[in-house]
Amino acid sequence: MNPELQRNFWLELSPARVGFTAVAIALVYLSAMMVPGNWLHGSGTTLLLFAVTGLWGSRRAADAIPDELAGRTWDTQRLSVISPWSMCWGKLFGVTSLVWIATALTLIGHAVIGGASWSEIIATTASCVLWQVASFWASLLLLRLGGQRVRGHTTVAQLLGLAAVGVSSVWSWPRAWYGIDFDQHTMRTVLSLFLIALTLFGAWRATRVELQARNLPWGLALCLALLFVFQAGFAPVGNVPNLKFQMQDISAASAALSGGLLLAAATLLGAVTVTSFLTPKDPIALRSWIEAVRAGQARRALELQPPFVTALAMAFLATVIAIALTGGVGGFLLPSTFLLMLRDVALVLTLTVGARTGRAHLAALVLLALLHVVVPPLARVLIGPFADLVFRPSLQSVPVVLLVEAVLANALLVWRLKAVGAMPTSQRTQLSAA
Amino acid sequence: MIRVRDLVFDYPGHRALDGLSFNIDAGSVVALVGPNGAGKTTLMRCIAALDTPGGGNIQVDGIDALEAPRELHRRIGFLQDFFGLYEDLSVRQCLTYQAMARGVARAERDDRVQATAQRLGLVPWLDKRAGTLSRGWRQRLGIAQALVHEPAVVLLDEPAAGLDPAARRELSDLLVQIAREGTTLIVSSHILTELADYSTHVLILAGGQLVSNEKIDQAIRAARRVMRLRLTRPDPNVENLLRDLNPVAVDALQFEFTLDGGDEAASALLTKLVTAGVPVAELGAVEADLERLYLERVRGTT
Known about the structure:
Number of domains of chain B: 2
Number of strands of chain B: 14
Helix content of chain B: 25-40%
Order of helices and strands of chain B: EEEHEEHEHHHEHEHEEHEHEEHEH
Strand content of chain B: 25-35%
Shape of chain B: elongated
Distance between the termini of chain A: 44 Å
Helix content of chain A: over 70%
Oligomer: heterodimer
Radius of gyration of chain B: 23 Å
CATH architecture of the largest domain in chain B: 3-Layer(aba) Sandwich
Largest sheet of chain A: 2 strands, antiparallel
Radius of gyration of chain A: 24 Å
Largest sheet of chain B: 6 strands, mixed
Number of helices of chain A: 20
Strand order of the largest sheet of chain A: 1-2
Strand order of the largest sheet of chain B: 6-7-8-3-9-10
Largest interface: A-B, 33 and 37 residues
């Protein structure tokens, strides 16, 4: 048996806890059966699943790592020979084992009393599982970002998990994917399963890093490629007014595909910014990577490559592919979005590299919010249409101003990297090579 | 058993380990000592493959710590300075989990747990919750967890911290027993008198650099003769008279210095001091031990 699962079963599944949970769920459904007009007859099971499988389950999943840190047992686990995959699923399924018993009892209760459709119940369960897995992954990422700091770790991880559920909900609105129509619950289920697969993969990779295994960038590259292909299936042409105008001369199918490709490339550009937040900003690790690149140590350089660099390479590839396949209908939209992303990533890294607290990341988030939401309308009032060239991707004009912004932001980043010791000196390079 | 070459470990803004190279033979019991911040814990974490150094190479029992950290974990036991236990598990469950997590085969697991509990005197506590154990017994359980998979190398960081004198003595006896059974031990501690009870070698670090790696008995035999001069009352001339010997004032009445030339030199020095009117109460050789050896080696490095 998976040792991590066994340990969690010992801790979680005491007869008293299992018995209490079973009695509590049974009483809820007994009440539903015997009290006329009980709330469980409508969408009650959905709410119950949200509370039990979602809220409680994601809390347990988000707490799995902080619990070990607080108990000073995490290093002991890292010293084990349990494989990263066994550690990952053993921990995830183990800490939520009681939640799963409660979930199973809830589903049995729903089968008895009826109510919401099974497709809705399955979609809700899938969303709740996504919440659990994403919270667990977020918890591992926060561990890499914030060292041993545990205050507020669980809640932040749980909120990030909830954000993943939010993304899947927003994503499921179009309901048409590569021309195939889905009903709302099926679409939600499929999207949740897709994101569960991605976040589980992310959690496995993060566990590997914690257990001193080295990751090559191909896994992340593959995930981003899948994201690109998946996203390209959605065609929100109508949501981008200028684009709709640009595409009115081509056939509906081509317009849909072109719109999907442009949006998929833009999604990958957004993923680079997200990845820049999630990449550990340890100057020593960055320096080791730069040293390996300079020394031409390909394998070591790939193992040490920060995830945002992989995302950047994939985003560039996606941009080139999208421009080539759409025949330029997007004008300068993608190149200027790419430059905007380069500026944003440089600013995020400048603020956060070498920082050991979450405050720097929060400051970077606030800065991006100001640059994208607050400042552009203000600037438009103050300096007129020129503000659009500074703050927004352009469809029709060459993005010279954005290029200047990207260059300046990256110069700032290089200065910051030197200041925190992330750029190798010649003496250090020699030492490392030796 | 352990081979370290050019080990470098950087924290942002400071180098914790600076080009360490040394070997440790199988079956040695190594006292890892050094001032606070010398890099002892970082070195142990690197040897245990918990932290990845910025440069250099570590091999333990033929396994490269950087290339195969998980394989290395199978052969190593590590009790950290501040370690945790699963408070709600029984002692038996804690040991069984560690045995499973360290790859002990299912058929051997129960026997290994029982044998380890026996070895550490934990048998009466096997079915008690770990959270109910006293500090001394928690320390024993921690050591038992580090030993249950019968590792070739055991690292112990401040294992006697927080223990009362009787528990410390028991711990010393236990480590002597473990060492006799052929396990290579590296023990980091500030309590040098206890380390001297069971250590065969001493590895001294200061400022992230290796100051010394030697066999304790040989080093003590080879140590320069340290003399201690005790006065009946303070004398302002004494430091001037001893100036060539670089004396260290232990207090206002006592001075220590090294003296070459054996008893003849000691006799001549005594005559010189008495002639000069120094109120000498005693002049004699100080017995060399690990603590003295350590102080001599780190003097001038900090």
